[in-house]
Design a protein that fits this description.
By secondary structure, the chain is of the alpha/beta class. It is built from 16 helices and 15 strands. The chain is globular.
């Protein structure tokens, strides 16, 4: 299994919580960027074989014009034609019929809509621009055009958000014909407007206990649906797990292209510059050789995010050592924080909220 990630950093406006490499740019810079991106992909062609998933993320990939979007898709058309899962992230308010026509033309078979919430006050607070009706309309537009694999991104824990707000978001989303739901807890990132507002007491951060209650509400409500939780923040209908995201959690190889994108190939992590100017000139900012010991730790730090956990039998066969002993995990098994389920080691269901404690063991 191997993935290709392509980063489009452009947005029409900047959300107050976002720390991904992004920018508002004119058409000239967008064209320069897409040309450079295509050039970078060409230089990596020898690595781009047996790709099982392509993920075009951002930023806001559907903020570029159709001409540039088609130019990019055409450059990887051969990969898109055989890859199992081809995803593009979209903002609902920008999604058009002509874009969807391009998705179908180039075998984009999965769309991830950035919704975050349907609460009008929070939408305004975080500088997004969709409406509840718009989200519904665009989902049915995708369905009408035979794009049936649809993910919705939601976030909980915004300042001033209530349990009722989360319930309302869930009521709405679960009434729609989607196949996948990514529901993330808000992370305050430095150098974002939201971080500045909270740090300067302009608005107040939510209480941690309330955020924990929100997460439990989300999990409990989704347990009563056809959605299965397969990772800490990800839920899907049966057989609609994200092939691409599972590559990351399973420590598979992936190639990244674009500003700030990372690759993990041949035990190296290669990261491009996050600045447009530097990316256009140099592309690569950092190359890190991942040691064998670091790789072993990452197997558990990433794998334990999955509800299935880490296959410890596979680990033992590959590395000829017992990971329970190596990482001193008996203390976590004895206190029922970690459990062994067949060949797998996983975090106990009622301890998921405390998962960061376990992840720190592997940092």
């Amino acid at each position: 299994m191997k993935g290709l990630y392509i980063h489009i950093p452009f947005c029409n406006s900047i959300c107050s919580y976002c720390d991904f490499p992004k920018m508002v740019a004119n058409e000239k810079n967008k064209e320069l960027y897409i040309n450079k991106l295509i050039e970078e992909i060409k230089t990596k062609r020898e690595l781009l074989h047996n790709i099982t998933s392509v993920y075009i993320g951002g930023g806001t990939p559907n903020s570029i014009n159709n001409e540039l979007l088609e130019k990019l898709l055409l450059s990887i058309n051969d990969i898109l034609s055989y890859s199992l899962e081809n995803t593009i992230e979209c903002n609902p308010e920008l999604l058009t019929q002509s874009q969807i026509d391009l998705f179908n033309k180039y075998n984009i078979n999965r769309v991830s809509l950035g919704v975050e919430t349907i609460n009008d006050n929070i939408i305004k607070q975080i500088n997004r621009h969709h409406t509840k009706n718009m989200v519904k309309e665009k989902i049915y537009l995708l369905k009408d055009n035979n794009i049936n694999n649809i993910n919705i991104d939601l976030i909980f824990g915004f300042p001033n958000e209530t349990i009722d707000d989360v319930n309302n978001d869930l009521d709405f989303i679960l009434s729609l014909p989607i196949t996948h739901l990514s529901y993330y807890s808000l992370i305050l990132e430095e150098k974002t407007l939201l971080y500045y507002q909270i740090n300067n007491k302009i608005i107040n951060e939510l209480d941690e206990d309330l955020i924990a209650d929100m997460y439990e509400l989300i999990r409990n409500r989704l347990k009563n649906t056809n959605f299965i939780q397969y990772e800490i923040s990800n839920f899907s209908l049966p057989n609609y797990e994200s092939i691409h995201n599972l590559l990351y959690w399973n420590e598979e190889e992936y190639i990244g292209a674009g500003m700030g994108a990372s690759s993990f190939i041949n035990n190296q992590r290669i990261t491009n510059y996050k600045s447009l100017k530097k990316y256009l000139e140099y592309k690569v900012e950092d190359i890190i050789d991942i040691s064998l010991e670091e790789r072993k730790k990452e197997i558990f730090m990433l794998g334990l995010r999955k509800r299935q956990g880490v296959n410890i039998k596979k680990y033992q066969l590959e590395y000829n050592e017992n990971p329970i002993i190596k990482f001193n995990l008996n203390k976590w098994i004895n206190n029922n924080f970690l459990i062994i389920d067949g060949d797998y080691l996983k975090i106990n269901d009622d301890k998921i909220l405390l998962s960061n404690i376990i992840f720190e063991e592997f940092v």
